[in-house]
Amino acid sequence: MKNFKLYLLVAICTLFVTFSFAQRSSYNIKNGFALGGGFTQFNINTDNFNTKSGTGWLAHMSATVDLPHKWYNVSYGMQLSENRLSINGLASNLSSNFEPIDYKVLTAQIAFLLHAKLAGPYLTLDFGPMLQYNSDLEFDDDGQEEWFIAEFDSVLAKDFVDLTNFNVNGVVGLTAGFENFKVRGQYIYGFTNILNDLNDAQFSQNLEKKFKGNQSMLALALLITF
Question: What ranges do the domains of the chain cover?
Fold first, then answer.
């Protein structure tokens, strides 16, 4: 069911991008498209437990409106990524040595960005809002499902996977390159509490401190534009 929702969102985003830029305009504009891929570094900033960022991959697609008479361009885009992070865990309730529990998170993101022209089309400052659908935490190694979360007594790793699935992010970054090849770096910050669903878990009812965390993602991609 979760994968179906993710695929449905991808299909809707693809249609949205396609039809948005298939319309005729009376302005002297130039439409362009970009395809690419790259790497992500993902983490959740929280005071509730210790996390460590991990490296994942992303696939990118966007449609750009080039406005030669303006100081900026605009684009609609979408990204699919598989991201990784780890949380301190214990292999058993008798263990005293912390070991990382490795999780992965699938995300589908759509963004509307402004691209301020710092050096014409060769260097732009990119910023704007982003909507995101993400999966819950999934195990990189299913053998860690019965491990314990280090900061919480008797909480199993398999019970510690719920994330808020729809989130709102902000994006800032730079794009540099030439007509057909560009490199894009982005910092993506989550404005919403991605850990809020953990507050509904049974083990959290007796905790004094509510779960709160914000997504933090660095993305680096190589784009082919046409």
Answer: 2-20+31-225
Provide the CA 47 distance to its chain's centre, in angstroms.
Answer: 20
Specify whether the CB–CB gap between 136 and 159 falls below 8 A.
no
Q: Is 112 exposed, middle or buried (0-12, 13-18, 19+ CB in 10 A)?
A: middle
CA gap 148, 92 in Å, rounded: 6
The span from the CA of 124 to the CA of 109, in Å, is: 21
Q: E-assigned strands of the chain? A: 30-46, 51-66, 72-90, 99-117, 123-134, 138-139, 148-149, 166-177, 181-190, 213-225
The pLDDT tens digits of the residues spanning 37-50 come to 999 999 999 999 99
Max mean pLDDT among 21-30, 154-163, 182-191 falls in 182-191
Say which range, 20-24, 144-148, 155-159, 160-164, has the weakest mean pLDDT.
Answer: 20-24
Nearest of 29, 30, 51 to residue 42 by alpha carbon? 51
**Run of H or E including 8:** helix 2-20
CATH T-level assignment (fold) for domain 2-20+31-225: Porin (2.40.160)
Predicted confidence band of residue 92 (pLDDT cuts 50, 70, 90) = confident
Task: Let me know the angle formed at the C-alpha of 209 by 204 and 213, rounded to the nearest 5 degrees.
Answer: 90
Confidence of residue 28 (pLDDT cuts 50, 70, 90): low
**H runs (alpha helix) in 87-216:** none
pTM of the model: 0.86
